[in-house]
Amino acid sequence: MTEKIKKPWYKRWWAITLWIFLGIAILINLFGDPDAVQKQAELTRIAQQEDANPSVDLEMSMGEIFDTFSGLSEIQQEEKMRQFKGKRIKTPIYASKIDQASLSSQYVVMEMYEYPYNLLPHVKAFFPSGEKDKLLTANIGDAIIFSGEFVSYKEGGLTSTVEFTDSRFIGIEKEQK
User: Fold this and answer.
1) What is the pTM of this model?
2) Could you give the CA distance from residue 174 to residue 177 in angstroms, rounded to a whole number?
3) What is the pLDDT averaged over residues 78-91?
């Protein structure tokens, strides 16, 4: 007295269709583009490399940067800052101080003025936390070559300051003998 309960036809076709689509998806995955994974890995590697070493817009010494702003009126300085704002500049910085930036996970390298203004920074370069290991290789007094995004030039009564953000350590300038 066992009777088979017949399922309506649309429930059987639904299961069959589902299995067919699942089989097609597996076949496409198995026999799809074999280089797709390699291509994606290469694109990811290139993107990470560009993040680690962003392209440089200008290459200037600190003297050239300060000379650019020297003798300009305030409105001329503001216009020049607009031109420089966001540009990535490759330049050396004389490391007077290397420290963790206050209230953040960034690090700052500062080139300080000489006495009697030695408590004021001449140049400030902020580095992301990922640059810490590279900064550990530098000593006070080294000329660190870096690229940084120009933020501002501030002219005070007796001193002027240039500031960079998102800086990337490139190396240490070797002294000429």
Assistant:
1) 0.65
2) 9
3) 92
